[in-house]
Structure formats: structure tokens, C-alpha cells
Amino acid sequence: MHPWMNDERTMIRDAARRFAEGAIAPISEELWEGQGFPYDVWRQAGELGFTGLPYPEAHGGGGGSWLSFVIVLEELARVDCAVANSLMANSSVASLLNNFGSDAQKHQFLRPILDGSRIGSIALTEPNAGSDAASIQTRATLVDGHWSIHGAKIFISNSGTEVSGPLVLAAVTGKKPDGRSEISNIIVPAGTPGFSTGKKLKKIGWRASSTYELFFDNCRVPAENLLGERGAGLRQTLSTINTGRILIGAMALGILQGSLDRSTAYMKDRSQFGKPIASFQALQFKLADMATHTHAARLMLYQAAALKDEGLPFDREASMAKLFATERAMEAAHQAIQIHGGYGIMSEYPVSRAFGDAKVLEIVEGTSEIQRMIISRDLLK
Predict the structure, then answer these.
(1) Per the residue annotation, which of 33, 224, 365, 369 is the catalytic one?
(2) In the chain, which end has fewer C-beta atoms inside a 10 angstrom radius, N or C?
(3) Are 292 and 330 found together in one domain?
(4) Which domain holds residue 208?
(5) Domain at 160, CATH number
């Protein structure tokens, strides 16, 4: 047994795998081609307790561990990374609300995204502010007890669906004494006047994960929708982003394991030149590399999650795990296509879809370059 596994986590893995193979795998190609949000799958994930697994029971969560949530995301991404990302992006909002929200905000906004009746979005990225989050231009001005919001966001996961909301939005709310922008997080409920979606964005992967441009034109929300302390927006987001890196790594682990599983099965079944391609040493070596990287990534990610569960520092481990798992997932997806040959480039085959999904993972929650900066700075400080 894996050193971080126990009977409870084994049961969670089995449940997540049954759900992924029974409810997601049969419609995965359809979701990819249609780029539609899987409402029934999201509802079932809520009923199974996956959407709120690592959050307090007092607010409708499951009271589980982050390591257990990593296992769930791993199993879902092994089948369809877009569906796994819906849970991951929802958890980013849940963490902000859980860590910094008032009791009233938790009751109104956190509970629905933990039980799966709604799905949360975090609106940080803008057309000219990606890795440099401090450069955001969206503004919120306090007028007569309301925040008046003007601006635009882009690449916002979980937006534009019938169950989207709440949105946690980062906006400039003033200037600090040193002249830098004061950035705060503000909760914007679905259907707020002045809040609209632009075009649906088409991606090379995560095609069933709904992603839109968002626009705010004198969008007014009550002053009490400020999340936590005014001016603490970036600090709040950065305090949760390392957890997000573990979760992105978990999805990369799912792609690693899925690529290994599919390649192994295909090599046993496929014959060329009168013998199974599993007898070709060049392909055997590809499997050996995939298996080694999958094992190493799992050890790194499970350790990072276990450190978080124990309340110990895990920032460097999260960046290392995210960097290693996502880059190795991209490599494994590439090699899985090589093994499958012509079939591998057909979108009806999961190895083809995993290739696009894997590329996205190297970008979100901090690019590979950002992770290397974080790791090296930590080593040299």
C-alpha cells in the first residue's frame, strides 16, 4: 500500500474511479466535441460529496483531507481533465470564502458551491494582467453603500453556465500610501445588473470546462460583499494559490496515470510486423519512463498535500510538485500518442484529448517558468 493511503482513502479512490468510469467516460468525447458543461456530472459530484470534500462540515463541506481531494481529482482527470478542473476551480473560490468570508457570506455563498447546487468562479486574470496580477485594471468604487465595478476579465473558469455564481472578483479599490494599487476581493452574485459574459473561449484542452470573458459596466454590489479586509485581495489569493498548485498537479498526475494505463493496454493488444508492439523495446522504454514519472509525481503531490493537512509549510513542495507533474504529464501525453500512432491523433481516442489537456496544466496557477522562479528564490533566500 502507498505510504499515505489508508482504508478511508482507498474507499474514496474506489468511489471516485467508479464515478469517473461510469458517469464521465461514456460522455467524455461528447463533452470534448460539444464543449458543453456537464450539468448532470456536476450534480452527481455534489451528491457524492466530492465538491465540498476538504471543507468544514459546519458550512456544508465533507470535513475531509486535502490528500483525499487530491485523490479525487487524480481519478477524475485520469478520465477527463475538464471535469476535474470544474471541481478544482470551484475549490479556489471555496477556499477564499472559507478562509476570509464572514459567517453571513459563508452561509449565502459558500454552502451552495460545496453542495454542488452552484459553481464558483474566481476572476483575477485580465487581458493585460496574467502572471503579473498586481497590474489588474478593473476598478471598484464605494458609492452610497455599494461597490460600483468597471472592467473586464478573461480566461475565467466555471463562468457562463446556468449554475455559475458566486464570482470572487479582484479589483482596484484605491491607492496605498506608497502609490501602489490597493486590490480587494469582492463577491459578485450571478445575475447582478452590469455583470455580463462575453464570448465563450475555445481552448486546446479542458473543452468541457466553461471559460468566458467577463465584463463589468457599473456593476453594483453591496458594500458588505467585500471579502475580508479591504486591500488584502492579492494577499488572500496568494495564500490559497499554493493549494491550487497541488490540485493542478493532481490533475497532471491523472493524465500521467491515464496515459500509462491506455498505452499499456494498447501495446498488449496492437500487433505490427507479426507480433505485439509490446515486444518492441523502444516502446517498452516509453512505458518505463511513464511509470517512473507517475510514481515520482504521486509521491511529491501526496507529500505536499499531507504537509498542508498537518499545518506545516508546503509552498516549495507545492511548486516542485506542480512543475514536475505538469511537465511530465505533457511528456507522457506526447508519448502516448506516439505509441497509438495514427489512432492517437484522432479526437475520439482519449490519448488525443489528454494531449490538449496536459498543455493547459503547464500554464495555469503559475507557468513552469514562474514555478522555477519560486523554487530558486526559496533556495537562495
Answers:
(1) 365
(2) C
(3) yes
(4) 120-230
(5) 2.40.110.10
User: Are residues 183 and 247 both part of a single domain?
Assistant: no
pTM over 0.90: yes
Q: Single out the residue of 57, 145, 39, 59 nearest to residue 108, CA to CA.
A: 59
365 carries an active-site annotation: yes
Residue 1 lies in a domain: no
Asked whether residue 134 is domain-assigned, the answer is yes
Q: Is residue 275 helix, strand or coil?
A: strand
Number of structural domains found in the chain: 3
Distance of CA 221 to the CA centre of its chain: 27
Cα separation, 326 vs 36, in Å, equals 25
**Per-residue confidence of the chain (381 residues) as pLDDT tens digits?**
577 888 899 999 999 999 999 999 999 999 999 999 999 999 999 999 999 999 999 999 999 999 999 999 999 999 999 999 999 999 999 999 999 999 999 999 999 999 999 999 999 999 887 777 778 999 999 999 999 999 999 999 999 999 999 999 999 999 988 888 999 999 999 999 999 999 999 999 999 999 999 999 999 999 999 999 999 999 999 889 999 999 999 999 999 999 999 999 999 998 888 889 999 999 999 999 999 999 999 999 999 999 999 999 999 999 999 999 999 999 999 999 999 998 889 988 899 999 999 999 999 998 999 999 999 999 998
Task: Check whether residue 275 and residue 352 sit in a common domain.
Answer: yes
CATH code of the domain in which 19 resides: 1.10.540.10
